[in-house]
Write a structure and sequence with these properties.
- The structure is a homohexamer.
- Chain A is an alpha+beta fold.
- Chain A folds into 2 domains: 102 residues, Nucleic acid-binding proteins (OB fold (Dihydrolipoamide Acetyltransferase, E2P), Beta Barrel); 176 residues, Hypothetical protein af1432 (Orthogonal Bundle).
- The first copy, chain A, is built from 12 helices and 10 strands.
- Chain A has a 5-stranded mixed barrel. In chain A, strands 7-8 form a two-stranded antiparallel ribbon. Chain A has a two-stranded antiparallel sheet with strand order 9-10.
- The radius of gyration of chain A is 22 Å and the shape is elongated.
- The interface between A and F is large, with 47 and 46 residues.
- Chains A, B, C, D, E, F: InterPro entries: HD/PDEase_dom, HD_domain, NA-bd_OB-fold, NA-bd_OB_tRNA, YhaM_exoribonuc/phosphodiest.
- Chains A, B, C, D, E, F: This is 3'-5' exoribonuclease.
């Protein structure tokens, strides 16, 4: 039996034991009319579906989302994906002497530090109106930013993922402004910081950065429109210049680029154009990096839904190269 | 020579004289390097392009958009469309004893009366929050509503066209609520009245209901987003229930139905679904009625751009039938 | 145990007993190599899949499609949908003292009455040719119209669904003619009555309005072409005016509007345009009404396949409003 | 001056004289307010637009569609296409001693002979029902088949073009049946002969095979539906087996293959599948052959609208090869 | 029990015994945590999924892909497809006295003979450059051509399928050249022989013509690009005329016709156009023939994925006809 | 009269004089049957169409593409675009004392220097195989790289445009590798340098960087396939590792990303993904910068074809900001 194994190391047929966080759980009835619990478990390295067959009322009360549990089980396969058949499970307790943070999938930098670094970028915005509106909204959102992911299940669906996504994009934005010097840094930094800010209202996340569902308003309007609404109200309050308000709203409106992805207007200023590419590049690099980490050299990954169902290839030569 | 002829009666080869309004005018240089004025003239019945060749500085000053002029000319053809070659032109004067309103293409009902009829519909909205927000925005917009068309060049591009479009849709909405009784009249009436209200900010219209261009904000955001912004601000001011605000915004957001036509979300409540169809039906009926009025029985119209380039057919039997 | 419970009230984990109609049944072999019967059961309120495990030859003979049965079972879940595990089942018998009509999902009005009401509309058609052809086809189809649904599994898949669909559309058509007065009532009423009439040939329905399959001709040609064929033959017989025949065929041909939904020609007369919208609106309202009936206030429905996979939202305010 | 030159040999700047047929003519007014006649002239080799400037009433009466004229003029260019400026024009007269057939663009085989050859194919159809219906319709259409083209302006828009299209497809069909021996020759030959037969009703052609316009019924229904109607009526008359009727209708219905090209059903029998490819191949080969005839070796043709705007390449090696 | 039954004759509920080839096998773990072997078995007539439940290490070693086995089992159904529950299985042995070739799904002609027939076609290519390059590549590929299929799972996924596909297309090409005499036989034959030749590098096939996977290069480039690369290198070696090389590469590049199917250029010479249709027709006829062989007269097949999910219809009249 | 004026400063109605380069010229015949020369003139700042009416044989010989001319003329307008009516024109001569380079639209850095800078990047490639192949192809192409543009008429259609495009992308690539540190610099730099290298074979450019047409091979294969061919041959010569060759070919193959834009495979390695975005961003920034340079603050540009027909907006606030 492999103990203290990480999810990304699970292989078909393994008999494992370790600590994991319950990302979600549902009580269901099997075809033989008995209850079972359908878990999604995570640790820092990945996620796996797990079944506790023939569960009883007791089990159903003992566990809940966001809790750390110790699990023993067998790794099987269902429709091409690994699955865990739970043999033994119990809640973690004080004697286990664990810090939950060690099990939460989270951004590679601390949220407090990322928050401060983004404030530094805000300080560089030297147009008063843009500075004020961005600063106001960013600071007002601090509490949620400390844990929100950038998505429910795609790229950056990790604790602190939204801050990490913003920060990486700011770093790239800064560099692109050195190449394409006619770009306006104020608008671009402002757009980067605000482009996904309404994800804080679109999704419901717990403090581990796990999103269980979308809000009603999120379903009916979506984060693009919610972000525009937020700017509209804050601009009113701060008495922001009308053109600035419209430009920031336009950047948010157009950042998905294609109408069928939610942007009824395509970018009409170069800063909005760049904002779109910063966003796509960061999402793609995140997904590709993660995918290739679990792909063997000279091998192909599974089909990745978020990448138009492409399979990725991991060259063999890189390994040689790094030696 | 046909005097006092209406534009819809022009035929190739006619030698005509009559009064028309200048919808737009541009001074251009011809291939033989002389200036000419390129007019678009309208009357109640239609629109025609007209050229004043070899114009001089004097001419260029004497005329401007929105003015009534007396024109004599020949009806020729250019790329399949009728065109007027101006032989003589002068501004209308007091002695002509004309009322400009008789020449403006305009809605079949008076704007003051349509405005009042819509107020009657608003009175029927018995949800306090919807009533207040709709009433506030509608009354606040009164001045522009008195002349704005519903579009720059498509359906309802006539003086009072926006009010007429709203009023006709309200009449149909009322009737559909008698058939589909589970529909909420409050939401539906509210949605109809607000769905295009931000066209007042999207387009610049003169007091004859002629739109020369879109506003910058209109280009960058569009009337759907501008309408949502307006509701956001007014809701804040009136302290409107959050769900009501979101539902009205959702109706505006989804009323074009397809992402590629500007609606990032499709309708999620039946009232939003119906709003979309009321809008399309009214636009289509307006365009089809106008097209068939100038089509001969048993004949086909030209291809109509706003109708997916379809040609319409006018049956012969209807004529017999009406006798 | 819940006895006499309706399908729309089933909840996961329920232990229920009640009477239902067998919509379809198939004998299958399970992975453990035993036979089981795979039922779809319906009552007035809905439909559910049900399994009778380890069935024997006796069971397989005792039941057949369209029969009323008494069932006891447990409500479980399979791939996100409720499913019934049958514990006990028997055919209904005389002592149960039941009327099958009380269990058939059916239109809210009686078919005989709907048939008469449509005849009233036909009487209003005052063009002789249209009147005769519509009247002939409608009366000729009476027998099947008494039970046919309008679809196999989408909107109006209920006993008398086709008549109900036609009647509701006629009511709306009548009202729209009051708004858009240039529409020809004869053509529009005729088009509404005939637009889906060949569904009687496209699908095979039993007398409970349950469609088991499409006919060969229905698969190879489809109800649009079959309807055109029917008009072709009846026109020949009644010596109908050629233009009238063509216009009615055109209305049927174009009523799905988009080529990819089966209409090679888009509407070229306003009555055909309106016919399309009447059809869509009635289908959508039917599906939305039914969906919202089983959705909780402030909640979202499941994704509805027939509505582009949208989820519907049920506002909370309506409830307050209705008090 | 080049006399008796053929249209396909016209070059920019030529001063030419020759005999041509008036395919169409329209009287228009130029920007300097004078009438001119806008001709399309054809001969066996091609088509060219020609202008007779400053025409008078006399000219307008003297010429009409389908007439042979003698023309002298200059070959100029307008928007990338050659155009003829007419210097002198007169109707051909008896002294010219010409046979109009020598000037009509027409199929490479005589219509009478093609008609007989197709009858031979019909004799090979040994299913009685298919034979009878195909034979009946083909013979009934003889008069029009003697001159009808297969299209207004695309492939086979030549005198006898429809017969030539059918005959070539039959020859290919015969050969494919030798390769794919499971194909049913009766159905396939029947489908080939009937697939475009209703073009005789869809278009109005004069006896030179020149189509001026579509019929009303053609616009409202199209030749696919009109062909199905024809089969419906003839089947009724001949008491044809129902399945045969449906299969022939299905073949016509599906022969454009894609819904957006007019086929609401895709082929469900192999003979319908093959029919589609026979049709496309014959149209493509016709257009490609004609295009390459006027392309220089190692050169590219203009963009061909009927070939998805492709340009064709003419290899140089073929010339060497043929020596 | 049916012994020596062929897969295409399996029916739900059958208890069968026979010899089959293991096309693929995977060891999996069931939901009750026991290992089972998931086989795909084939014989000359078809393919079926089969499960050996509760397998042990011994079983897992005894079987491997490409081996002949004797199987006894029950035919059940899973998600609408037949499946075999294995009761008894053992490897075939010498005493069974079997020839594996009798069990491999393979082309109707022997590969050696097909290879020779294609050489005959190559001899007919009388352009030296084309002849040499085609001959070189074809002969160089002989070893693999002796068993390679034309696809992993679609049309011609049989032993010798690639040769059979090429040969049938050559036969049709020959016949089409008799109809469309301006086609260049050299180019067309060359294109047919080379169009799919790089499938030998794109896929990994065992000697039974069973493809287990794509090669890395096949995934990253695809057989169209790989084929172009092959021509590039061989042309260099044979010092082929540049235009010939480009034309052959163009034919390969464009033979899928649509960009979304892998052809960035559409055909620009008629031989490339015809090549595409030869390819499609042969694939479709193969799939349709096979599908109809297991469809009952007057019945419809299942939906065929490779045919846009169409169902095929098998007419009843053919049977009568053949008597 | 404005003398020595630059094309980007032309305004409707201007009477101008200056020196320009003939980008292209065609002799045409006007509707009044006289010859005229249709020029496209360029200078460093832009391009304009110009007409020399009533030209004679002498004129036609005196001028040719790539020559510097002195022109006097009037700026008029044709279909919304400025056009020059030439009053006087003559070739530039020695006494004008001009350097043609001052009139050629060209990259902002000298080609020799850009060439050297790219060599520096090549030196950083520390994988031997990638280094050798990239170095070989880049050096072999030096002559043409000294003047080739990156396109015929879109982005970077300037002298040295291809080098400038490559160099800017390398600079951005370098910076992105600092952010996304898992990217392989060798592959990415190699891909950037080779991605468009076959444009040197796809287009024919004169030494002023003006492309008159595509080559035959360019039309039939396109620069993506031509680039892959080049790598294939050079790899053979340099005996490059097979995987490296395939990866570089894959990067070229996938760099247009969408099949309909010429990439039959989408990127399967992150370096290919980034290559695509580097390419798009550089093209977009080039076009946007140039467009905004001639747009007034608070104004919109014309619709830009290369930007999905979008109009760009130039904010007013930037101007204030820069003071």
């Amino acid at each position: 039996m492999n103990t203290n194994i990480r999810i990304s190391d699970f292989k078909l047929g393994d008999f494992i034991e370790g600590f994991f966080i319950i990302k979600s759980m549902n009580i269901k009835t099997s075809s033989n009319n008995k209850n079972f619990i359908d878990f999604n478990l995570v640790d820092k390295t990945g996620e796996i579906n797990a079944k506790l067959w023939d569960s009883n009322k007791d089990d159903e009360k003992k566990y809940s989302e966001g809790k750390l549990v110790k699990v023993r089980g067998n790794v099987s396969e269902w429709q091409g994906k690994l699955q865990l058949k739970i043999i033994k499970i119990r809640p973690a307790n004080d004697e286990d002497n664990l810090v939950i943070d060690d099990y939460v999938p989270s951004a590679p930098e601390k949220t407090e530090i990322m928050y401060e670094k983004i404030l530094d970028y805000i300080r560089e915005i030297n147009n008063k109106d843009i500075h004020n509106i961005v600063s106001y909204i960013f600071k007002e959102s601090k509490e949620k930013l400390m844990f929100y992911p950038a998505a429910k299940s795609n790229h950056h669906a990790i604790l602190g993922g939204l801050l990490y996504h913003i920060l990486t994009m700011l770093r790239t934005a800064e560099k692109l402004c050195e190449i394409y010097t006619f770009l306006d840094k104020n608008l671009l930094f402002g757009g980067v910081i605000l482009h996904d800010i309404a994800k804080l209202e679109e999704m419901d996340s717990n403090e581990l950065g796990i999103v269980s569902s979308y809000t009603s308003e999120g379903e009916l309007l979506g984060h693009i429109i919610q972000g525009i609404n937020k700017i509209e109200k804050v601009s009113e309050k701060l008495n922001t210049d009308k053109e600035i308000t419209t430009l920031l709203q336009h950047m948010i409106l157009s950042h998905h680029y294609e109408p069928e992805f939610g942007s009824p207007k395509r970018p009409m200023i170069p800063e909005a154009e760049i904002l779109h590419y910063l966003d796509v590049i960061d999402a793609r690099m995140f997904d590709m990096k993660r995918t290739l980490e679990s792909t063997k050299p000279k091998g192909f990954s599974d089909k990745i839904w978020t990448l138009h169902n492409r399979r990725l290839y991991k060259p063999s030569y890189q390994n040689l190269n790094e030696e």
